[in-house]
Amino acid sequence: MPRVVITGAGIISSLGDDWDTFKSNILAGKSGVIYMSDWERFKDLNTRLGAPVPDFKIPDYPRKKTRAMGRVALLATRATEMALQDAGLIGDPLLETGCVGVAYGSATGSVDAARYFADLLTNANMNGITATTYIRMMGQTAAVNIGMFFGLKGRIVNSSTACTSASQGIGSAYELIKSGKQKIMLAGGCEEMSVTIAAVFDTLYATSTMSDQPHLSPRPFDRDRDGLVVGEGAGTFILENLDHALARGANIYCELVGYGSNSDGDHVTQPTAETMRIAMQLALQDANLDANAIGYISAHGTATDRGDIAESIATADLFNAKVPISSMKGNLGHTIGACGSIESWAAINMMNEDWFAPTLNLNNVDTECAELDYIIGSPRQLSCEYVMNNNFAFGGINTSLIFKRWIG
């Protein structure tokens, strides 16, 4: 069966769009979370915190290619362009042969487009609705626009599964290459900053209200946490058949060796530890690994009570207290549809440099969370062969990805 490697990556985040900048900010203990002053007009909204991408700009793309893109699709397209450049595939005729596909997602399309349809329903007003309004709003806007922008003729897989959008996209791409259906896949996820997403979690009393100290929230796994903070960003991986990558002399970041996904089948917003554990077990089985092979876990770690506790119990049940674990959401907030790609990217780069970041703002582990080797305070120097990234979403969707250090 074909092996799958990562040969390119493009990331847009609140803490930088390249590894050197991102790493510098992480090591300095910086947070991308800020006070969202423009949310003051939403009087019944509890949270005022977000982690937006500062000063996002796109190159001078032709208007014809971007008129069907809202911010979320623009983030995805730019991150994908960066990944293709990194992989040495920009302008490669292979892109239009049908051998290259897309597996990509976001929780929603662009909300600015949706407001025009809301106006139609509430005021019977068609003003603002154009031929591209729905394309900007639709759940598959990122995957479709990436395919059109780069002229791809292969599979288009939309993974609009909330917080597992990116990891399901990566997992689906991995399975397509393993099955021989595609040689290369552009995979990942994205999300744009939107008050509507904040409001979704607000109705569940799951958002942070530490407005006067944004840099101290969120606090994954911490006893003093008060909820999550929404963020934005995009992350694209170039997944490639190993033989094809070697034949063209591609740079290889790592090998993707395991993917597990399942559903709770129980409650739409309340996580279930047992099925979370099974998702991780499925990834281990797919990779033909024992639990003790994993050297580090990139946790979902949203800083919500139910989520943190269930995830920690699931992880401890499978790994005991031995495996080092941390969450990037203390730095980035919850980037929803993008988190599976951005957090995997960070884990891969840290694995390749033999260190792992602590969970920012985790000072005192909640006693209701299971006993684990939480990385706290300062980076951990650690050399390992395998890392795991876990994500869990509304609808009870669970995902687990396992990456292997590339030795050659």
Written account of the structure:
With 408 residues, the protein is α/β, with parallel strands linked by helices. It folds into two domains: 4-247, Thiolase/Chalcone synthase (Peroxisomal Thiolase, Chain A, domain 1, 3-Layer(aba) Sandwich), CATH 3.40.47.10; 258-405, Thiolase/Chalcone synthase (Peroxisomal Thiolase, Chain A, domain 1), CATH 3.40.47. Helix content is 33%, strand content 20%. The chain is built from 13 helices and 16 strands. An eleven-stranded mixed β-sheet has the order 5-4-6-8-1-9-16-15-10-11-13, with helices on both faces. The chain has a three-stranded mixed β-sheet with strand order 2-3-7, with no helix packed on it. Helix 11 links the parallel strand 10 (296-298) and strand 11 (324-326). Helix 3 packs across helix 6 (141-149). The longest helix has 17 residues, at 71-87. The chain is globular, with a radius of gyration of 20 Å. The model has no long low-confidence stretch (mean pLDDT 97).
What is the fold's blueprint, element by element?
Elements: E1 4-12, H1 19-27, E2 34-35, E3 49-51, H2 63-66, H3 71-87, E4 100-105, H4 111-123, H5 133-137, H6 141-149, E5 156-158, H7 165-178, E6 184-191, H8 195-202, E7 230-231, E8 233-241, H9 242-247, E9 254-263, H10 273-287, E10 296-298, H11 305-319, E11 324-326, H12 329-332, H13 339-353, E12 355-356, E13 373-374, E14 380-381, E15 386-393, E16 397-405
Parallel strand pairs: 3-7, 4-5, 4-6, 10-11, 10-15, 11-13
Antiparallel strand pairs: 1-8, 1-9, 2-3, 6-8, 9-16, 12-14, 15-16
Helix pairs in contact: 3-6, 7-13, 10-11
